[in-house]
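Continuing the batch. This is chain 6 of the set; chains 1 through 5 are on the previous pages. Same settings as before, nothing changed between runs. Recording input and output for traceability.
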Amino acid sequence: MTNVITEVKSGNYKQADQHAITAYLDNFEYLEASIEKHDPDLKGTLEIDMRENLRGMINDEKPSQAIEEYVNGILGKLEKAEELLANDTSFSQPSPPAGFADIKGLAAGFGTYTGERKDPGQADDPAKAAVRNGIDEIRIKLDETLRLYKEGKAEGALLTSRSAYLDSYENVEIPLRPIDPDFTLDMEIKFAELRNLMQYGAPFAQVEAKVIEIRRGLDESERLVSGTGIVAPAIAFSTSFSIIFREGLESALIVGAILTYLEASRNERFKKHVYYGIVIAFAATAVTWFVAQFIISMSGASRALIEAIAGVSAVAVLFWVSFWILNKVETKRWIEFVKAKVWNYAVIFYSLP
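Output for chain 6:
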C-alpha cells in the first residue's frame, strides 16, 4: 500500500493502480476468510475500501494527499485485522511464490461464510441485470486473455485476466455469495489458478482448459443469481419431450415398416436381427451419451454444437433408411411389373397358332 502512495505522489496513477490490485488480489484475498471468522464487518469494509473506493480514487486521479489519507485509513484497519489474526492459532501465513496466488489459502475459506443466506433467484432485478452484463464483459475479457496468451503476450494476458476478475466478477460475487458461498469461492480459486498458470508459463492448452472451466462457472453463476423460475423448466421439459416423442415415433414407424416388409416378403427368419438391432440401439444411445459428455468436458464444445451435429446425423440416418425402404418398395413393384410383362408375352406366344 505504501507503493501506492509513492506512485501517486510521482504522478504515476497507472502504476499505483497496479500496486492497489496486487495488494488486494495477491495479499488481502487470502486473508478474507480468516478475518471474516472474527469480524465480518471489518472484512467487508476492507474489501470495499481496497477493491472499489481506493481504485476509484486512483482512476479518477484524486489529489495525492486525499489518496494518502485514505490509504492510511486502510492501513489502520489492516492493523486491527492483524491483531485479530495474531491470536488465531488456526491461521497460517500464506507462503506462495512471490506474485503467485495462494490457492491453499483461498481454499481455507470453504465453509466459513456466516452472512445472510438466500435461495437461487432471490437477487433483485437490478442485481440480476448487473450480473448478466458483468458476465458478458468477463467472457469478452477471457477471449482477449486467450488471444494475448496465444500470441505470446503473457503480461497483457495476465493483466486482462486480473481485470476480468477484479473489475467484473467481484461485482458478480456480491449477489452470488449469499446464494452459494462455496461455489463463489470455487470460482475465485479458478480465476486465481488461471493467473498462476500464465505466470508459470503453462502451455496454451492448459490455460485454455482453465478458461473453459471458468466459462462453465459463469453460466452457473448467472443461473444461480437469475434463478430458473417456472417458465424456463417448463419450456425445457416440453422441448425435450417433443423431441423424444417425435424421434421415438419415427423409430417405431421405421421398425414397423421393416418388420412389415420382412413379413410381406416371407422373410420372417430375419426378424430376430431387427430385435437385436433394437437392443443394440439402446446400448449405443447410452454409450453415445457418455461419449458426448466426455467430448464436451475435454474440448469445451458447446452443447448447441453437439446437438447440431447429432441432429444432422439423425436426419442423414433417417433419410438413408427412408430411401432404402422406398427403394425396396420400388424394387418389388418393378419385379412385379417385369413378371406381369413376361407372363403377358408368354400368354401371347403360346396363344399363337
